[in-house]
Design brief:
Keywords: Capsid protein, Sporulation, Virion. It comes from Orenia metallireducens. This is Spore coat protein. This protein has a single domain, classed as Ferritin, core subunit, four-helix bundle (Ferritin, Up-down Bundle). It contains five helices and no strands. It has helices at residues 5-31, 35-60, 102-125, 130-156, 167-176. It is flat and about 55 Å long.
C-alpha cells in the first residue's frame, strides 16, 4: 500500500501521540483510586494499543494494517445532558506533585482524547488513501466516544460544569436563524 508523504508524516505524528497516550494510561492505571474511572481506563486501554499498532503497521508494511479498529458505542449514563445536580468542585493547579489524583487523571485523559480527536479529524480530511482515511475516521469516533465517557464521569463528580442554556439565550438564537425549504435531492 502506498502512502502520500503527508499521510506518512501524519501517521508518524499520530503514532507519537499514541506513545504518549498509552504511556500516560499506564501511569493512570497505577495511580487511579476511583473504581469506575479505573474500569473505564482499563476498557479503553487495549483499544488505544490496537490504534497504535495499526499506525505502526501502516507505516511499516506494504499491505497496510491487518485489523480494523472497533468503534465503541457511546455510553450515555447521565440522566440529562443539560442539568447536573452535583455541586461543582473548585480546582487550582498543584505545583509540587508526586502522584496524580483522580480528577487530574480524568482531566489529563479527557484533554488527550480531545486533542487526539481533533488531529484524527484533520488528518482524515487531508488523506487521499481511502483505507487510511476510514481508519482515521474510526480513530476519531473512538476518541470522541471515549472522551464522552470520561466527560460524563467528570460531570457526575462535580469536576466539569454542566448547565442548561437559559430560555433567553435559546430564544435569542431561535429568532436569529430561519429554516430553509430543502430541495429534492436527485439520486444518481
Amino acid at each position: 500500500m502506498e502512502l502520500a508523504a503527508n499521510e506518512a508524516y501524519q501517521l508518524h505524528e499520530l503514532a507519537m501521540s499514541c506513545v504518549n497516550s498509552i504511556t500516560n494510561m499506564g501511569l493512570f492505571l497505577n495511580q487511579v483510586q476511583d473504581q469506575k474511572l479505573r474500569s473505564m481506563i482499563e476498557r479503553h486501554f487495549p483499544l488505544h494499543i490496537r490504534d497504535y499498532n495499526m499506525k505502526a503497521e501502516y507505516l511499516s508494511k506494504a499491505e497496510g494494517a491487518t485489523e480494523s479498529l472497533p468503534v465503541p458505542d457511546i455510553k450515555s449514563i447521565l440522566p440529562s445532558f443539560t442539568q447536573s445536580n452535583v455541586a461543582i468542585q473548585p480546582v487550582k493547579p498543584r505545583i509540587d506533585v508526586q502522584s496524580l489524583n483522580d480528577r487530574e487523571i480524568a482531566t489529563a485523559y479527557l484533554l488527550t482524547l480531545k486533542r487526539a480527536g481533533r488531529e484524527y479529524a484533520w488528518s482524515a480530511m487531508e488523506t487521499s488513501n481511502p483505507e487510511v482515511r476510514a481508519f482515521l475516521e474510526d480513530a476519531f469516533k473512538m476518541s470522541s466516544h471515549h472522551a464522552h465517557e470520561v466527560w460524563q464521569w467528570m460531570v457526575e463528580n462535580g469536576y466539569y460544569p454542566l448547565e442548561a442554556a437559559s430560555q433567553k439565550t435559546l430564544s435569542t438564537f431561535g429568532k436569529l436563524y430561519q429554516t430553509v425549504e430543502e430541495p429534492v435531492l436527485q439520486m444518481q
